[in-house]
């Protein structure tokens, strides 16, 4: 069966990699950028759009405020990038906000940061893929009815790519990432040059008005709209922490390369975000989250994304340039999920090592990636896509709460880290440490304020779900840790060692007298137990009578016990019989031997051993019971000599 499973697996994932090849998987900066920074880079495709959508509640009258909102987002982004560069140097082991919080704020704060990051990574995959498919639909509207299934298919492709290895996924994603950067910068440059020459590009929505949601906005309502617009624009910061989580995946010097990659990402993101926002204002892009508020829209009008309208205005709709921008935008939005596919498994592996998540998540697969973490992330993201019908507008309301929880805790932890360095560090480092503490202190204060804004403005729009999911995940991780702690205490050997059992009762389960059954009997006898018996359940009187006749005919030197089962249940009578032996002799061990057929093809397994499987599952929970499977490969076993008593009984 393994041959049939391994062939398609190898075709999809490639050959296994030995542990000593781990160094070959480390990333240079040019590959690390698409692997860890595709999410913040791709957020430029929708961050400006989110600002304009929120400001549209006031009609066109509030659009002049978008540069101020974008400026606030840029200031925040620069602050967070500078702060996380400090984290790359201080914690080169990775883990980001979780590692920083655990070291400086305690385990409770670390689990809050971890739960926030895990939720955010799942949302990153769902939002990025949904946004990518939305841009595809903008270019090819006929695909709109299949958006959810297209999104799920994309997650499957990303999963396979990441299971192949970090370096391979980086190479695969490099062209779309750099293609997006070049295409967007070309669009911005051409558009702004045309505007400076007096021939500004005009968006297709420039002639369409947007009705205000209310007749007038008071000062408090205006502030609320601005804050909500700022909160929506903060989606440009998603994925910034992924570099600090993945420092171990960089080539040496790891910290310097990670910090350098983060700086490059910051410059590219700020420049693109500012350029897209300015070009959107120059070309008069008008957006609304409610088509009913569009004034003067032609019949059948489909509102394209901001970046699609800009590409159409600069290059012309249905031009090569338009499709290049849309194609690369779709690809990078889809590949932005790769940031989470690298961050989530690493964080989950650290939590697994610490005993707060299943320990299977801490093991690398045969391609040197944390395969189980990749699979868990993809399953959770697919569930979200189905639940929200791959709607970017609905999913994005759940977004960035977790981002700013982790940002705030990480920066606060770094402030305490630098304070400790000041107490213990060398005098020559004092100036650097003071500057670093100021940067992280300002970052902590700013991200905390933004967290409050995001929480208030997005709570009723769906963010409350994240506020439920994070505490649930927090308590689940604590429960997992308690379980592992109890198990470790229970499994620790005592001072006296492990006591030997008084006796061993061996029981061989049989239903018919077959070669596998005789083999199991011979194996059980070879272990020399204190007592040995065969056990069968009478569910069909005729078959049981035939078994008894065969048993007597062959003169099998093992007593056969027959249990009646009036309700034709094979499992319960056997379990109760074995439990009764344990009740009579609590210090004894019952060894149960189960003969099993090993068939040639995987589908044939469904035709055999189902009763044995159910019985073994029940016996696993019985104290003092050991279950041994005695396999027999049909058509492949070499005949073994039988014990003398059985050989004599077999002669006619």
Overall description:
The protein has a 5-stranded parallel β-sheet with strand order 5-4-3-6-7, sandwiched between helices. A two-stranded antiparallel sheet has the order 1-2. It has 2 domains: 2-22 and 40-484, Amino acid/polyamine transporter I; 504-650, Rossmann fold, CATH 3.40.50. The protein is built from 24 helices and 7 strands. It has 652 residues and is α/β, with parallel strands linked by helices.
Question: What is the compact description of this entry?
Answer:
This protein is an alpha/beta fold and 652 residues long. The protein is 61% helix and 6% strand.
What topology, given as strand order, has the largest sheet?
Answer: 5-4-3-6-7
Largest sheet: 5 strands, parallel
Low-confidence residue ranges: 1-5, 643-652
Shape: elongated
CATH class of the largest domain: Mainly Alpha
What would CATH call the homologous superfamily of the largest domain? Answer: Amino acid/polyamine transporter I
Q: Structurally, how many domains make up the residues? A: 2
Which radius of gyration do the C-alpha atoms yield?
32 Å
Q: How large a portion of the residues is in β-strands, by DSSP E?
A: 5-15%
Tally the beta strands: 7
Helix-and-strand structural type: alpha/beta
Helix content: 55-70%
CATH architectural category of the largest domain: Up-down Bundle
Average of per-residue pLDDT values: 82
Helical region count?
24
- The CATH topology name of the largest domain reads Amino acid/polyamine transporter I
Distance from N terminus to C terminus (CA atoms, Å) equals: 39 Å
